[in-house]
Amino acid sequence: MLWFQGNSMQLAKYSFRLLLRNRSASKTVLPVLTLFTKDPCPLCDEAKEVLEAYKNRFILQEVDITLPENSVWYQRYKFDIPVFHLNGQFLMMHRVDISKLEKQLQKLEQQGL
């Protein structure tokens, strides 16, 4: 799993670089699952435990919303963490929805993205 801090533009650039690096490293491209979190966050810790079983199907990047450079994310998600984006698109919040995650991962795997 990977941990990342940065603003939204840096996050987008970093996600894209991860995607490109991953694409060149193998024929299978792993999607990027972004976890918006803070410390402490017991629900985030619980979510990471649930996600452990899926760790070979995505790259996890964590964004600490309390850092100054992430103030946009803090304003958006301060009452909703954990929040998850898959390849830059909102996926779920509060708890891991396994069926939703599985459905989106299968969709991306079928598309080869």
From TrEMBL:
<comment type="similarity">
    <text>Belongs to the glutaredoxin family.</text>
</comment>
<keyword id="KW-0249">Electron transport</keyword>
<protein>
    <recommendedName>
        <fullName>Glutaredoxin-like protein</fullName>
    </recommendedName>
</protein>
<dbReference type="InterPro" id="IPR008554">
    <property type="entry name" value="Glutaredoxin-like"/>
</dbReference>
<dbReference type="InterPro" id="IPR052565">
    <property type="entry name" value="Glutaredoxin-like_YDR286C"/>
</dbReference>
<dbReference type="Pfam" id="PF05768">
    <property type="entry name" value="Glrx-like"/>
</dbReference>
<dbReference type="InterPro" id="IPR036249">
    <property type="entry name" value="Thioredoxin-like_sf"/>
</dbReference>
<keyword id="KW-0813">Transport</keyword>
